[in-house]
Design goal:
Number of helices: 2
Helix content: 10-25%
Strand content: over 45%
Order of helices and strands: EEHEEEEEHEEEEEEEEE
Largest sheet: 7 strands, antiparallel
Distance between the termini: 32 Å
Radius of gyration: 16 Å
Number of domains: 1
Number of strands: 16
Shape: globular
Structural class: mainly beta
Length: 206
């Protein structure tokens, strides 16, 4: 399960995402609302991984982000913001395409056929809510989890509306702007949200 803390963030996620998207050349329009998100868990439990679907102008934007308790070395260019989390303290919010833990987790989900984690909301260590999934994601593959390679780092080959990331002998393609076409690869993540669906992440051998 993915643990979500009942907390306030300053600045908020909407403020962080809106400010970051406003300076991306591939993104047009203003953030109007958050549709929902899906999560896969870092096996070590240290990095939060969330893929958020947003309405931006006339488009739907798919934004993978990671949340860390300390800066990610060498990833200053991919830091979206720092935020004060009322339960966890300072959190560093990154474009997840540059985060090896996030990339491996999403890669593993596509290869193994995993389904997004249920979201349990905790308040001061006590379970207060299990949220129904607004957005679902499921991988297409049937690999054993043990066969997924460890990643020491990732290399971003392009960083536009459809980033290409090289990681552990694989190419990972992320669809940031939902335009009716699918990310193409040998295995993938199929994402469904209210009013839409699409293959928003694909994985292929290099």
């Amino acid at each position: 399960m993915s643990i979500v803390h009942k907390a306030t963030l300053t600045p908020s996620k909407s403020e962080i995402f809106g400010a970051w998207l406003a300076v991306q050349p591939w993104c047009e329009g203003e953030l109007t609302r958050t549709i929902g998100s899906y999560r896969f868990d870092d096996p070590a439990g240290r990095v939060g991984i969330e893929c958020v679907l947003l309405e931006v102008g006339d488009a739907v934007v798919h934004l993978p982000v990671s949340y860390r308790e300390a800066p990610l070395e060498g990833a200053d260019a991919f830091l979206m913001a720092t935020t004060d989390h009322s339960a966890l303290g300072t959190r560093y919010v990154y474009d997840a395409c540059a985060d090896p833990v996030a990339v491996r987790t999403l890669l593993a989900a596509a290869l193994t056929g995993a389904t997004q984690e249920p979201m349990d909301v905790y308040d001061q260590g006590r379970l207060v809510e299990r949220r129904d999934a607004v957005v679902t994601a499921v991988g297409s593959g049937s690999w054993s989890p043990d066969a997924v390679p460890h990643l020491d780092g990732v290399t971003i080959r392009s960083h536009e509306a459809a980033p290409h990331v090289e990681a552990g002998g694989f190419s990972v393609v992320v669809k940031r702007v939902v335009d009716g076409s699918d990310a193409e690869g040998e295995e993938s993540l199929e994402v469904v949200w209210p009013g839409g669906s699409g293959t928003l992440l694909a994985v292929s051998h290099l």
